[in-house]
Every structure is written in structure tokens, then in C-alpha cells.
Specification:
This protein has 191 residues and is an alpha+beta fold. It has helices spanning 2-24, 30-47, 55-72, 96-107, 150-163, and strands spanning 53-54, 79-84, 90-92, 118-124, 129-137, 167-174, 177-185, 187-188. The longest helix is centred in the N-terminal third of the chain and has 23 residues, at 2-24.
Length: 191
């Protein structure tokens, strides 16, 4: 619970700063941004009470987060999210993927650089293993240091506590591109 409490404010403050900017400039997409944030908060408050949440709910929150960032820069075409086989009654520790994605947006230059990008893939295989990958260009100010921050550190702690040896998380910063790969053995919800 303590780790979840540290993750939520990190995400919330970054998102509210973006919405504040849009509201202060009276941007017409501000109401849609507030709706997307509301959907994410609803997920966090109501669906993340248990140790596991439905994967499809976590994916919906990722889609809402993508929408928030795509609204922020509708001309940026290099922000992609591909998913396959992420439905049904598969469960995941809540906020893991959402926090990793938010971290990618925070450290990427995709909204500032025409050549910047964020590519995310989520795929569940036949053995119910989630393969989650992020590749993103990195802001010049972040190139000399690792992209590991509070968000990724908390996710690692959460994964260690909940999944123990049922996951693999690998990160690498190479040629101005940050790569993350997370493989998790998911569980199925009964019924």
C-alpha cells in the first residue's frame, strides 16, 4: 500500500501540470483531458484496491494516458501503442504498466522533437505471459543519466513483493533510446 501511495501522486502531479497548462490557455481539448484523467483516477481509486486488477482495466488506463499525451501534441505521429490478446479475465498487479508508461512520457522528447518517439507494445502469449515493451527517445538532459527514477524504482519493489520470481524487467539506455522490457506471468481470475 505504501508503494502504491508513492506511485499515485507521482503520476497525478505530472498529469495535473499538463491539464493546468491547457486550462490556462483555454485550449478546447481541456474537457476531454479532464475526462481521461477522471477515468484513470476512477481506475486507481476503485479497481486498484486489491492486490490484482484486471489486465484489460490497466490497458484501458494506458489508452487514456496515451490520449492525454496525444491531445497535448496532436501533430506528433510517433507515439504508438500496440496491444494483442490483453483481454479476458487475466489479472496484473495494479499500476505497474501505467506507471512505466507515465515514466516514458516524462523522460521522452517525443513532444518536443520531431524525430522523437514512444513505442509501446503489450502482448499476452498462450502461456498467459505478458510481454510489455517500451522504446522511447530520450530528452537531451536525460542522456547522461539512467532513466530510473522514483516510478521505476517503486515498480521494481512492487514486482518483487507481488511476483517474486514470476517476472523479468530489463532496462537499457543506448544510442539516445531508452528500452524497457517487462515479462510477467499473469494469473486468471476465477469465474
Amino acid at each position: 500500500n505504501l508503494l502504491k501511495a508513492q506511485i499515485n501522486p507521482h503520476f497525478l502531479f505530472n498529469t495535473l501540470n499538463n491539464i493546468y497548462y491547457y486550462a490556462s490557455t483555454q485550449h478546447p481539448d481541456t474537457p476531454e483531458m479532464i475526462e481521461k484523467l477522471s477515468n484513470i483516477l476512477r481506475y486507481i481509486v476503485y479497481d486498484c484496491k486489491a492486490e490484482r486488477a484486471l489486465l484489460k482495466k490497466e490497458i484501458e488506463s494506458l489508452e487514456n494516458l496515451f490520449s492525454l499525451y496525444q491531445i497535448k501534441n496532436d501533430e506528433q505521429q510517433s507515439i504508438t501503442f500496440e496491444k494483442s490478446n490483453c483481454n479476458g479475465n487475466l489479472q496484473i498487479a495494479p499500476l505497474v504498466l501505467l506507471n512505466l508508461l507515465e515514466n516514458a512520457f516524462k523522460h521522452s522528447d517525443a513532444l518536443l522533437n520531431d524525430a522523437g518517439f514512444i513505442n509501446v507494445q503489450a502482448k499476452v502469449d498462450e502461456a498467459d505471459v505478458l510481454h510489455f515493451q517500451i522504446a522511447n527517445s530520450v530528452k537531451k538532459s536525460n542522456q547522461r543519466k539512467s532513466q530510473t527514477g522514483v516510478g521505476e524504482s517503486n515498480v521494481r519493489k512492487q514486482l518483487d513483493l507481488i511476483y517474486k520470481d514470476q517476472y523479468k524487467l530489463k532496462t537499457e539506455l543506448s544510442n539516445d533510446v531508452f528500452h524497457l522490457r517487462l515479462d510477467i506471468q499473469l494469473e486468471r481470475k476465477d469465474g
